[in-house]
Amino acid sequence: MKRVVVVTLILCASLLGAWPSKQVTFTPYDDAKPILDTLVEIAPGELRCGVANCGEATWNAWVVKRDTEIRARLAQGDADTVVNFLMFGTSFTRAPRLTGEQLRALSSGTNATTVDVATSSSRTLLDKRIEDLIAAMNVRRANERLEFAKKTLEAAGIDFLQPTAAHNARTYLIANVDRVLREQAGFEQVLAEAKNLNDATEEFAEVSKLYKDRGLSLDTSLPPNFAIEETLREMREDGLLTPNSIKRIGVIGPGLDFTDKHEGYDFYPVQTVQPFAVADSVLRFGLGKPEYLEVDVLDLSPRVLRHANSLAAGAAQGKPYTIQLTLDEARGWQPKLVRYWRHFGDQVGVTEKPAVVPARLKRVTLRAVSVRSQLARRMKSFDLDVILQRAVFEKDDDKFDLLIATNILVYYDTFEQALALSNIAAMLKPGGYLLANNLLLELPGSQMRSAGHVSVKYSEKETDGDTIVKYRRMK
To answer: What is the reported pTM?
Structure first.
């Protein structure tokens, strides 16, 4: 019998009630070997050797090392989140949010030898925001986002008690803004090159690994949940999913609504939306029953796991979990997406009075939903790196009927996506589905097979949309 590296996760009973302990294991060598044999040419160098030299021991050592490296990418993702907060936050400054045009001006000025008026104006606005953010981080206040930003800078070596703190913080923020802008320009170039392939499948494949060298960001938005709903609707109509067939859902990397340039704002508490969005859609189409449905979180981010554990513990004590939903008219959403925004949450909660929208945010409308504790208190969290780890279940009936991974696998290359698909197959019931907005390589020996896709537009903008692929675990 092959030895398997096992990590046991035991959640604190006082916090989460009598939830059972769960096991998470690294991908067994026996499951990885067919992938290594098939993708040997693109496998990491340490694994590209003969079986005599690269056997189980080498594999077990590599997965532990690689898991550490993947988790380290969270630090750069946190820096990216701080950059978004700096550019688009409204809680620490009265300066306007940076627009797309201003970001493009800043990006064009990053490597320019001369600075035009638009770039200069944008840089002045950015400087004002930097000044205000640094000042806000120096004031003690109960603001989760400011505390996170300060801790991120402190982790980078900035001591706010030193007289040089403001200078060092400014240097750090400018450097990361410039880095993010350069990366975004690089992503846009890759997208343009992919489009020039004149092959929709090849283009989708390239886009599906666009962020393989980027930090792991937790920022999220509402529209991908609309794409999931449209996919579930079609699967119900096509008979791929039958009434009350879904009892357990797993959301891989649900993210946190922190702040971004589109749907994310910082005038309401940090929240996670996707677990409840998927449950809402499943119940809307009669694919599950509210008294039995369970939605779990699978993530490697301590921040996400803490948030999920906290909301579940709060629900167990009768505390409501309120989700704020923004609608920015300037985004030009398709009517169907607007309708989704209007009915979101009617299956999992009740309408609640929303937070107050700052007056300077023009054309932004807000609604809120208070999630019923019945669903939230059943949520379990798995500390899991889906590329290299899987949850272990005693029997197939305990596994997931449905796994969701939107804007997650795009952070990895083809080899690591293949490993992830193996782990996902191991966590799904036979006949269960993964819904992901990625085109993943289906190896001959894989248990996962595509059952088609659904393309959804969010606005009239050509690139504003998603394609959700339905991957089914074969019996």
So the answer is: 0.91
